[in-house]
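RECORD TYPE: inverse folding
INPUT: structure tokens
STRUCTURE:
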């Protein structure tokens, strides 16, 4: 799996960078957490600081286009992101926050 950054937009008010990327893969579309971990490694960030918002693979192609939000810290991500996106990206402990 190869990841290439297509476009980056700084968003200093929310302490994040919005990233558009492409993933070239040999097999089926990779899982969200695999993409998140690879993108975090590419950007030299911790996995908890990266929220993959969207993955789009066209039928029959081995290329996926995605959008992610890369935060300055995991705390910034939990403050800004919606709970279902944090859960999808395995960030924080949603059960502990509800208690």
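DESIGNED SEQUENCE:
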């Amino acid at each position: 799996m190869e990841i290439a950054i297509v476009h980056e937009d700084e968003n200093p008010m929310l302490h994040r960078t919005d990233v558009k990327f492409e993933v070239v893969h040999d097999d089926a579309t990779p899982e969200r957490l695999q993409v998140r971990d690879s993108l975090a490694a590419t950007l030299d960030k911790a996995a908890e600081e990266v929220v993959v918002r969207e993955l789009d693979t066209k039928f029959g192609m081995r290329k996926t286009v995605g959008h992610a939000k890369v935060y300055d810290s995991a705390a910034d991500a939990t403050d800004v992101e919606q709970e279902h996106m944090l859960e999808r990206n395995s960030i924080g402990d949603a059960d502990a926050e509800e208690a």
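NOTES: Strands lie at 2-11, 16-24, 50-57, 63-71.
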